[in-house]
Amino acid sequence: MKSSLLHMAITALAVIMAACGNNQSPESIEIYESNGKYGLKDNSSGKIITDAEFDFISNFSEGLAAACIGGKWGYVDTSGKTIIPFIYNEANYFSDGLALVADDDKYLFVNTKGEKAFDTEIDNATSFSNGLAAIMKRDKWGYIDTFGAWKIEAIYDYAGSFSPDDSLAMVSKDGKYGFIDKSGNEIIKLQYDGCNEFSEGRACVMLDGKYGFIDESGYMIIPNIYDEACDFSENRAAVLIDGKEGFIDKSGRIVITPQYDDTFPFCEGLAAVEKDNKWGFIDSLGNVTIQFNYDKAWWFSDGLARVERNWKKGFIDKSGNEVIPIIYSWASWFSEGRAEVRLGNETFHIDTKGNRLD
Q: Are the CB atoms for 46 and 57 separated by under 8 Å?
């Protein structure tokens, strides 16, 4: 079970869904790697935009990408030009025109010109989303707007983000969790022992040691009867009953009988599941589409899933064909048509046909 309540707040599903559909960078720009360094090149022509001189480059957001040189972070545009100098210890993506950065002694927000956005004191923070950012001040969390003005008082022990799709944010106080709106009104009472953010209109909550789901009005739409539960992905959520995992739909109906030892969430129509120490794949109705032939399997992204046999990794397609041989000592998932792999002493990128890119 890969996305049940983790630290009562953050789920691994975010990582999986990023792999399923992460595409923030412009389609024409590709981040390439050479000898452990990163640069930019034109995806269509293959022309090098910048030499591989960066220690790391993130995906672009709002026209800029955070990049690192010699342990210091700054921002470059799609031409590789340095827009914000490499002077920060940390740098996050831009959202609502602002990015959270850290210098030697504090966190601050900067605009796309690198100018300090406001002077509000910040001990820790999340990036802006839906016009607000969660801010920690003196060990308590609240919310500010893009001008640095406090909109929700810092009274919480934890505060999540207002996502672009949701008008509610998860907060906790005195060991209990619930949800507030952008005005700070407590829409769903802080009564749960743990909960996750909303996913597909449902939030997984824990009460009295059992897991269930609420809707955005706070109604317990799926009773807390499960030993563990995951967030919804593609209208399915994994649940644990008597040591076995299966899947329910958003009405709470069991659509795939609990019978598996471990599962990943559905991604691109299929879910990796484990049974009798072997992994295979099922569809949303529980039909086995790829037999249990692997020592480990993960989720699909870009039409391919990473699988493992005898400690080596490769990739299969949705028909179970071994598209990329199982020969690598390590492999990432595919994102934007490329994956990082390690063969012998070399680490490099491959495309979805297994061709080496750098």
A: no
Mean pLDDT for the stretch of residues 193-205: 94
The predicted pLDDT at position 26 comes to 67
CA distance 87 to 292: 50
Q: Quick one: tokens of 223?
A: 């009773």
CB 229 within 8 A of CB 212: yes
Confidence of residue 86 (pLDDT cuts 50, 70, 90): very high
* CB-based contacts of 170, cutoff 8 Å, min separation 6: 9, 158, 159, 160, 177, 178, 179, 195, 196, 197, 203
Which strand (E) or helix (H) includes residue 73?
strand 72-76
CB atoms within 10 A of CB 310: 6
Asked if residue 272 lies in contact with residue 278, where contact means CB atoms within 8 angstroms, the answer is no
Angstrom distance (rounded) from CA 108 to CA 55: 23
3-state SS assignment for residue 13: helix
Task: Quote the pLDDT of residue 114.
Answer: 96
Q: Where are the alpha helices (DSSP H) in the chain?
A: 13-21
φ/ψ of residue 18, rounded to 5: -65, -40
pLDDT of residue 54: 95
Nearest to 49 by CA among 71, 76, 69: 76
What domains are there in the chain, each with its CATH number?
Answer: 268-358 (2.40.128.630)
- pTM for the model stands at 0.82
Rounded-to-integer distance, Cα 3 and Cα 6, Å: 7
Q: How does DSSP assign 86-114, residue by residue?
A: EEESEE---BTTEEEEE-SS-EEEEETTS
Q: How far from chain centre, in Å, is Cα 23? A: 12
Residue 22 pLDDT > 80: no
Residues 100-156 have pLDDT tens digits of: 999 887 899 999 999 999 999 899 999 999 999 999 999 999 999 999 999 999 999
DSSP state letters, 124-153: EE---BTTEEEEEETTEEEEEETTS-EEEE
